[in-house]
Amino acid sequence: QVQLVESGGGLVQAGGSLRLSCAASGRTFSIYAMGWFRQAPGKERDFVATITWSGGSTNYADSVKGRFTISRDSAKNPVWLQMNSLKPEDTALYYCNAYTWSGADHWGQGTQVTVSS
User: Fold this and answer.
1) What confidence tens digit (pLDDT) does each residue in 49-61 have?
2) For the chain, how far is it from start to end, CA to CA, in angstroms?
3) Residue 92, phi then psi, degrees to nearest 5
4) What is the DSSP string of 46-91?
């Protein structure tokens, strides 16, 4: 099993920045990639960004390209999501995800991000 713990959410004004972190523990050797998803009230959970465990490859949703950066120091845990130029529509519960080589998904409990206009 892989356990994930997120931190760094909060309330920020539009145009501001936040940095989320996700620490993985347990069978981390089984992880292929880690990423962030978000879910706004009444909506489905959407993909935000992902990074391979080696840190060599990243991918972003079009809605956050140029504003969000996912990163990982391969020598350390956690995975970071730097969020700049935040908009009210970025308000959501942000979930950390770990995807393993065997095709399993693991999820954190989520951290709330609220952007006021």
Assistant:
1) 999 987 779 999 9
2) 40
3) -175, 170
4) EEEEEEETTS--EEE-TTTTTTEEEEE-TTS--EEEEE-S--GGG-
Tokens coding 64: 């956050």
Contacts of 7 (CB under 8 A, 6+ apart): 20, 21, 23, 111
CA distance 22 to 102: 21
Residue 35, beta-bridge partner list: 50, 97
pLDDT, position 53: 85
Question: What is the residue whose two structure tokens read 């950390």?
Answer: 96
Q: What is the reported pLDDT for 12?
A: 98
- DSSP assignment of 20-48 equals EEEEEEESGGGEEEEEEEEE-TTS--EEE
C-alpha span between 110 and 98 (Å, rounded): 13
**Main-chain dihedrals φ then ψ at residue 58, nearest 5 degrees:** -125, 160
